[in-house]
Amino acid sequence: MPFDAYGPGGYAGPSRYAHLGEYRLRPGDELQVIYLITRRQEQGDYRLAPGDEVLIESVADADLQRGTLERGLEIQPDGTITVRLLGQVHAAGLSISQLRDVLEQKYKKLYDEPSIDVTPVRTNRLADDIRNAVGGQSGLQQQALAVTVMPDGKIRLPGIGGLCVQGFSLPELKKEINLRYRELVVGLEAEPILTQQASHFVYVLGEVATPNRIQLEGPTTVLGAIAQAGGHLPGGNMRQVVVLRRAEDWRLISTMLDLQGAVFGKRPTPADEIWLRDNDVVIVPQRPIVRLDNWIEQIFTRGVYAAIPPLNIEVR
Question: Which end of the chain is more exposed for a tag (fewer CB within 10 A), N or C?
Fold first, then answer.
C-alpha cells in the first residue's frame, strides 16, 4: 500500500519493496488463474505438435491418402507420422507447408509428380488438454485454477509445472505465465487474480500488557501495535522502543524510537511514529530505574543476603 497518504512517519531502515507501490506476491498468497482459449497466433506460421491431426492426399495416387476430414492422421508422441511407402516421417515442429514440402521431396523418389497436399484437421490439442485439466472435458466448469504460493515461493500450473512467483507483481506474473505457455501452445492466455493475501504479522514484546503476535489488517504504526498488545506497562521505557527488521539483503537492522513525547501529548506529530512492516519485532524495554531495582533485588536480596544471612547480634 502507498503509506505516504496516511500522514507522517518513515521506515526503519531500507524498505524491502519501496513503499509497496504495487503488491508483490509472497508465500501464502492465494491466486486464481483464469484461462482463455483464443486460438489466435500473433505471428509466424503454426507449428505442428504431438496430438495434432492432418489429412494427407495425393493427386498421383489415391492410395497415398492418410486420414479423413472427420478424423485425421494423428502426430504421435515422438513427433512422427506413418505414411504409405515411406514409413515414419518427423512432423512435429514443422508448419503445414514445410510438412508438405518434406513429403513431396520424399515421394519424388517414387513418383514423377506426387502432388502431395496436407490439410490440417485438428490442431493445438495441447491447449485443449490444459483447458480440460483446469475445467474438465465438458467445459461447463469455470476455466480457472486456484493456487497458493508455497513456502518456497512457487506455484504449479498445468503444462508449466513449478514457477517461482515470489516478489512478482500481478502484471509481471501475467507476462511470465503467458510467455511460458507461448513456448508450448498457441492461443492460450492466462489472467492471474489475487484472491487472498497471506497474513501479515508483527511481534510486540517487552514491557507491554500482553506480549503477542499482532496481525496487520491495515496500516499500523508502532503505537498502534503496542496498543493492540494491551499498551505499555508503567515500567516500560517509551524513550527507547526498538524495532527490528530485515533489510533487502536479509540483514537484521534495528531502529530506536522515542515515543515518550507522543504518549504524554507533548509531540503531536512525532517523527518516530513509523509504519510497521510484515515480521517486524517491536521491543518495549524496561526503564533504567526498573532495571536498577531488578539488579539490586537479584544481587542483594536474592543473591548475597540469601547465601549469607545477616548475623543476629544481641545487645545487652
Answer: C
Prediction pTM value: 0.61
Would you give the DSSP letter of residue 3?
A: G
196 touches 29 (CB < 8 A): yes
Q: DSSP class of residue 314?
A: P
- The span from the first CA to the last CA of the chain, in angstroms, equals 80
CA-closest candidate to residue 286, choices 278, 298, 294: 294
> Cα dihedral angle (283, 268, 275, 244), rounded to 10 degrees?
-20
Statement: residue 295 has pLDDT above 60: no
List of residues 6+ apart from 35 with CB closer than 8 A: 130, 131, 134, 135, 143, 144, 145, 188, 189, 190
Mode of pairing for the β-strands spanning 281-284 and 201-206? parallel
* pLDDT tens sequence across 126-175: 777 787 777 655 544 568 889 999 999 999 998 888 999 998 999 999 99
Contacts of 156 (CB under 8 A, 6+ apart): 147, 162, 163
**80-83 vs 87-90, strand pairing mode:** antiparallel
Say if residues 83 and 63 touch (Cβ distance below 8 Å). Answer: no
